[in-house]
Amino acid sequence: MMFDPIQSGGGGRGGGAGTLVSRVMAHVRARIAGRTLGPGARLPSIRALAASLRVSKSTVVEAYDRLAAEGAIRPRRGAGFFVAGHAPPLSLADLGPRLERAVDPLWVSRQSLEADEAALKPGCGWLPPDWMPQPALRRALRTLSRAEPGALAEYGTPLGLSPLRRLLAQRLAGHGVEAAPDQIMLTESGTQAIDLLCRFLIEPGDAVLVDDPCYFNFHALLRAHRARIVGVPYTPHGPDIALFEQALAEHKPRLYLTNSALHNPTGATLSPLVAHRVLKLAEQSGLTIVEDDILADFEPEPAPRLAAFDGLDRVVQIGSFSKSLSASVRCGFIAARRDWIEGLLDLKIATSFGAGRFGAELVLAMLIDGGHRRHMEGLRTRLSRAMAETADRLSAIGVEPWLVPRGGMFLWCALPGGLDAARMAQTLLAQNIVLAPGNAFSLAQTAGRFLRFNVAQSGDPRLFGALERAIATADRSPDLRIAVK
Questions:
Q1: Shortest CA distance to 363 belongs to which of 156, 79, 110?
Q2: What is the H or E stretch that residue 50 is in?
Q3: CB burial class (10 A; 0-12, 13-18, 19+) of residue 138?
Q4: Which residue has the higher pLDDT, 1 or 340?
Q5: pLDDT tens, 375-405?
Q6: Which of 6, 190, 211, 418 could tie 332 with a disulfide, CB 3.0–4.6 Å?
Q7: Prediction pTM value
Q8: Domain 134-367: which CATH class?
Q9: Fold for domain 20-95?
């Protein structure tokens, strides 16, 4: 976990919420929760911690005393302070910055998943059910109901359903990615694919680069693996190359986790020039790149892929079908070099045993369905229309898109007049509207004015009416504005 030094303006005693004492306590708790300080480990000396956090020694003394009173640490006369007892259960919230719950990535996910059917969910990351190919899914279910018993009741092979892997190899070739079927391993989801790759490629404490902003669950997954997350600002053409190079030199990261096609949340597209520069820097530094291509089906034309330029040497590509076919049918994949697939197979067996054959059979049946191509063409047209309409309606009330993407479902928009997106989200949640505030996507917490809108979930006029009313009352509601520090 990265920690910024606490700027001290004095002794810091008093210890209420948000004071220096409580922040020092939060820092120690986070290290204990993240297992960088295990049971029985000696804490830094009072002098050393005060120097590293840039606070007074009296602040650290009071923080240690309070942690000892809670039972989190124990003093030993003449030896210092030590972590008490057994390690607490892993808390992802404690591994991240202490944020307002409205900008906590896990909060955003839970609100979207738990919202009732009457809720508006412009902040969620998936299509409405009636936008999905339900007729094809029902045909696939009927077909599978007549399949031989093994398709319904047996574990899948470790690599996964062979006909689906052959089809995936053909689909990847359409994006310029050359991957033989034995270089493709099926997973239960895109999330499981990233989890397996983190288990395979990094150790606790390793640095991992992410875009800033990026898909917020990248943060949660990497914290679960105790990675040291480093953000690189993202531009309309890809990561800021100068800062990318600087991060490589300063942090020596093992991985870079990114989207290339339709970037989440910004909708930006990686340019060929930036892609080549990223790959050159990766080669020079020994960096491995995990390219999440989950939104590939929504592209009007294929954009550059790092995996295509690289030939799956130091780039691993992942994907899934939860966005385009069904979120209930869990099936994803990893495309990687052959010598890595063997190790990934062992990890997959250890963590989930056999592949989910039922889901893979359903996905295969839907992909080869005669109506699939027509459905996807119609879906891209529908999304393009929704993108234009949503951008126009938001601009009319002063909410401006950062850019208008060439495809996909996401619009990254700035609120007017210094409005705080997290507070806006809390206000609209009371009206049963779930938003996705920008700082949930930003490691550096520099996206406080931004919201990510899912255009497929933004057609209801109530959304724009609620936003317009909140913006109109902002002059009388200083709580809705970003605090000036």
A1: 156
A2: helix 46-53
A3: exposed
A4: 340
A5: 999 999 999 999 999 999 999 999 999 999 9
A6: 190
A7: 0.80
A8: alpha beta
A9: Arc Repressor Mutant, subunit A (1.10.10)
